[in-house]
Amino acid sequence: MFSLALMNGIVIGVIYALSALGVSLVVGIMNVINFAHGELYILAGYFSFIFADALGWNIYVSMAAAVGLVFLFGILIEYSLIRPTYGNDMYSLILTFILSIVLQNAYLLIFGPYPNKPPNWIKGATNVFGQFYYGNQRLAALVAGVIVIAAVFLMLKKTWFGKIIRAASQDREMAELNGVNTKALNMLSFGLGCALAGAAGVILAPVFPVSPTSGVPIALTAFVVVVLGGMGSMWGCVVGGLALGLVENFGAAFISTGYKHIFGFIILILVLAIRPVGLFGRSET
Questions:
Q1: Region 87-106: what's the mean pLDDT?
Q2: Are 29 and 165 in contact (CB under 8 A)?
Q3: Residue of 194, 193, 210, 200 lying closest to 63 (CA atoms)
Q4: Concatenated DSSP letters for the chain?
């Protein structure tokens, strides 16, 4: 049971981290909390389902197209809803909350209340170190999640765009004085944050089917991971996501599955009581 709980915790933790990276990126650059983050995760899952199941596209092409469309939708949201609210964080928070409600009802109208899932990438199960058999689809989701997270960190460290993101997150005014177009940066960063939610959605949808309201717990978990790891810290998202995934799954395995989501909030409260800025957050001086 220990090995299985550990494996489940790592798989879910990686997906938590991937989903939270998008939230952290948008908060770090724009200081905007996107309440519709979970609905964008669901939107990518639905797109993947439509392309792969209904239209018969190759599953990998379907996933790439789904993430690309969510990226473009994110850019549209930033341009039409978020940009006019710059300077008033409360307006953007209210608008994204309303958007999440609108998207949930649109999903219900279009897809109905029942879960939908795209086809598995791979079938069967693998014997893990002679301890237990684990579904190949979950193992593939783990590998895909790690690859996407590594690609995000590589982009932030090695590319021109990543250097601009890091500069703007540390000192926005100085970045503007050095010629950075912060409006364009906001638009691309918001789109990238939405695309990361979409990436988590297409990776996890074959394991956990999507339904109109299943994005709510995803968004709440992503916010918990961001606060746990430290606002705006990308490494905090990875460590916080893994910690939350492990705590939830060990708690479910050895105490009760009924309290699975309570364990994460208990850890969050304990961490914030000791370190209010989160594990990797920085105090403002």
A1: 88
A2: yes
A3: 200
A4: -HHHHHHHHHHHHHHHHHHHHHHHHHHHHH----TTHHHHHHHHHHHHHIIIIIS---HHHHHHHHHHHHHHHHHHHIIIIIGGGTT-HHHHHHHHHHHHHHHHHHHHHHH-SS-B-PPPSS-SEEEETTTEEEEHHHHHHHHHHHHHHHHHHHHHHHSHHHHHHHHHHH-HHHHHHTT--HHHHHHHHHHHHHHHHHHHHHHHTTTS-B-TTTHHHHHHHHHHHHHHH-TT-HHHHHHHHHHHHHHHHHHHHHT-GGGHHHHHHHHHHHHHHH-TT-SS-----
Candidates 234, 224, 237; CA nearest to 266 is 224
pLDDT at 283: 64
| pLDDT tens profile 2-52 | 888 888 889 889 988 988 888 888 887 777 888 899 999 999 999 999 999
pLDDT in tens, 160-207: 888 888 888 777 778 778 777 888 888 999 999 999 999 999 998 998
For the chain, state the CA radius of gyration.
19
Question: What is the tens place of the pLDDT at every residue in 115-147?
Answer: 988 888 888 888 888 888 889 999 999 999 999
